[in-house]
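Hi both,

Apologies for the delay on this - the queue was longer than expected. I finally got the copper (II) ion-bound model through. Below you'll find the protein sequence and the ligand SMILES exactly as submitted, and right after that the structure tokens for the full complex including the ligand.
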Amino acid sequence: MIPSVNDPANSSDSGIVRSRTSNSSRKGLKWLALVVAPILLSGCQLPGFGITPGVTTSSHKVYKLWQGFMVTGLIVGGFTFVLIIFAAVRYRKRNDEIPRQTQYNTLVEVLYTVIPTLIVAALFYFTIVVENPEVALASNPQATVKVVAFQWGWRFSYPGNPSVNVVGQTTQNPELVLPVNETTRVILTSLDVVHGFYIKDFNFSQYALPGVTNRFDFHVTKAGEFQTQCTQICGLYHSLMYFKVKTIPAAQYHQCLTSATSGDSFVACANGTSSLKATVRPSATQGVPVHHG
Ligand SMILES: [Cu+2]
């Protein structure tokens, strides 16, 4: 409830009310400035709120969008929290008299309808601006990988070399190899139930849906190894559905893919080792196992 200083029923003490109101609104503004100023002044030193800028071209934009959402949420949530505490303390019950009734304040009602609508519209706009390029498909991706999720593992196959298939399930985390500074098309589906294809350092998540093929592109900017996991509870061993992403220089990627005779030799070449990686067993290229239950 916002007290109306123009209420004729209170004309006798309207001067006192006005001075109280202006005092408290000045105090409120001071507090608001104390909360908002550090956020504004810190500029690009904003915290990541649990995520990092990541290693793809779009992960940086997603990172900024996430920061924007978090800062907006903190301002709105903080402001609402202050108002609730202020109202509870300032207008707490002091005696049995019925307090002044100040509903139907048109200005306040218009403000609390219009401002949240504008905030949501702005968040929606920035989401579209960031998301549309992220899900847009390049006309000529330099690499392609097919990803099949299943209970409870992953299969990666590379149309550039049909003999390269990498499969891992439960404790055998398979390795997905991607080139750096090139665009890779990922073609994703699921054999059985809904799985979540999530790479933390890419700030990216996509459903692997049975009967549906999802396509998206990655443009990785940094070589390294990145952990991933299934983000949909998909059955008994969902918690073991990990895989590793290894990003390597594009020249090495294409050389390894061309010369590989199996998924294992491709992964070994990408890791610069002649021996096979422990995470991919020799039997892993024999196809996706069938699961029951
Ligand atoms: Cu899963």
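Main takeaway for now: The pocket of copper (II) ion is lined by residues 149, 195, 230, 232, 234, 238, 241 (CB under 6 Å).

I'll put the files on the shared drive as well.

H.
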